[in-house]
Fold:
Amino acid sequence: MSTFEFLLQGIVIAAQPMNLLYALIGVTLGTAVGVLPGIGPALTVALLLPVTYKLDPGGSLIMFAGIYYGGMYGGSTTSILLNTPGESSSIVTALEGNKMARAGRGGPALATAAIGSFVAGLIATLALAFIAPFVVKLALVFGPREYFALMVLAFVTVSSAFGDSTLRGLTSLFIGFALAIIGIDQLTGQARMSFGIPDLLDGIEVTTLAVAMFAIGESLYIAAQGDLGPDKVEAVKGSVWMNRQDWARSWKAWLRGTAIGFPIGAMPAGGAEIGTFLSYATEKRLTKYPEEFGNGAIEGVAGPEAANNASAAGTLVPLLTLGLPTTATAAIMLAGFQQYGLQPGPLLFATNPQLVWGLIASLLIANFMLLVLNLPLVGLWVKLLTIPKPWLYAGILLFATLGTIGANPSVFELGMLLAFGLLGYVMRIFGYPIAPVVVGLILGPLAEQQLRRALAISQGDVTVLFTSPVAAVLLVIAAAALIVPLILRARGRGEVLSQLAASED
Amino acid sequence: MKQFFLASILAGALALPAVAADYTIIAPANPGGGWDQTARSIQSVMQSEGISGNVQVQNVPGAGGTIGLAQFASQSAGNANALIVGGYVMVGAILTNKSPVTLNDVTPIARLTGEYEAIVVPADSPLKTMGDLVEALKKDPGAVSWGGGSAGGTDHIAVGLIAKAAGVDPTKINYIAFSGGGEALAAILGSQVTAGISGYGEFESQVKSGTLRLLAVSSAERIAGVDAPTIKESGLDVVVQNWRMVAAAPGLTDEQKAAVSADIEKLAKSAGWQETLKTKGWQDTYLAGDAFKEQLAKDVSATETVLKDIGLVQ
Structure:
């Protein structure tokens, strides 16, 4: 049978009423846990595993897939409306999305996130169905040195994309690096900068830092302003829906986000966050409205949201073809497979085609359901912003704290949440961007580990970093991204650039 | 029926804090890993076999299980309803992290499962047998890069033992730690490292499909259904097993200890547990009482020796 016939057969299986119900339960639960900071899809699937033991394998896996997609989407709602990223992959969404929401454009922001997620999910799921075996071969080409080159590229593009001042952006990034060093060094097992505190041995949790910096810092900032707060939040200005210009600016960003997110999700050491960073940086470079970035540019929401959903589908590529779980949720889904005596891997497509294609088809259906579930709710969600500030921010604090406690019941974790909240507040007062801190915490350890792995494998020979074709190309792109603006400036076009930089304020 | 189903899902999703549980099991790791799966398997078998009416699993991740262990030892003292899952990796982590809380601060009940290590190379590797690999290692230890799980874990310890048995300086081994067997698998498949080492289950489907060549397993005897010699057969006296256990809280009375031990024995002997072992591909290594205590002490001192040899523990 051809791929296409398999897929059709899968859709028939997934469209059975019971399976549709599982998919609906999955996306609803997934959206709910995505909204709560801290509690992620991984924990939810783990909690449901014993419950689903009695169900048939197809049904429960369909439900898990729904939770996974739902969780990826749900995080964006709180990011946009409350500046509180529910998941680490929706941190970037908060940057532009929340600015849009404050300018009364929360509706279009939510809509472009929902539709972008749908478009990306659709394309990426189809890509999963048709080109998974090829993508996985490509992903395996990526060894430590290629990952390191990718990280270098990410640093160069990302540090220039966040905030108005490069110096301030880099300062924030290095605060993130410093925090990233804390904890057990992965390659040697030795503790660094943990000062004998056991809770620090595992390093600083990304979601704790993100929730603290964004939600707690923001709440403190608003509270400190008292009634004098200048930025009056307008719940809705203009239409709740996207206008013609919104569509025109969104669709390319969706496609680019998908193209960036899917392959990065498919890489064994990738991760949804990296795709969102790169997508944001790309959109900022390509936009025709650079002055809007930092003030609520719709591309800055559309691209990263598409990227994070595309990478969710990408994650399933190594899971289904190699049996290789690359995220916590994928690891639990693997446990789900094993619960039914199925071993994901190169043989799964051959031994259990119904199940694999049923799963892929149900991803398509879950994707439709997310859109159906979320678009009508956009009008309701934006009403959240009409809640009086004291109530709203009290609620945000409550959710942030609950989420952190739910994920890791520890007093120390709560202390860190408050401490980083204060740090976020101080940085905000002095005009330092906070997103690069989180970026540093996520990318710093990846870059360090991959560099050290590459050098360990080569026994200290630095030239290996440039001799792989893939790594060389990535490094050349990174160098170009760094040098070209300098050359342009030197040739007298600097005024334009600095003007652009100034207007980003 | 549907309402019941929905209600049970909601109850499952909302029941984060333990509500009057007969047993609360701490899984000292993130959801999805081996300890988490062990804890959740115990949970479902205990409930389905009627050993306990209500079992909750709580994840307290971090630092090779030592965070969960420390929390368990301090908060559950004297509580006969509290259990923690642990294993060989925890033994190593306690030593490398200089954890103030050790397995002496809890009440180990029984070893439950085990998994042997497998050594693999990519299918196109010039190394055909374990002997070839050992030869290469003897010639230039640094040129043989080993991809495996976290530093100081079972995989790393096994490589240290192999080097020592082969007469190679264990501090010279080139062990590349990945954040889990999965990420290591990708590096092995992409021929980024010379050889890979991890639990057999991580490699099973790749070995069956022929993309990886299985050189040896770390058991004492050949494993039924696995077509590979043991490390012992290649002349190196190395047997490593990544076992997992369950422990109870410190400060229990003898009666309480006996009651918990009886429940765990019932679990280990049940048909449901045997079925779970089969589907997960875990070996049954049930060992309880004084025999387990003795074995545990032996494992701890052997691990300490090898970690010192590798240079991870001073």
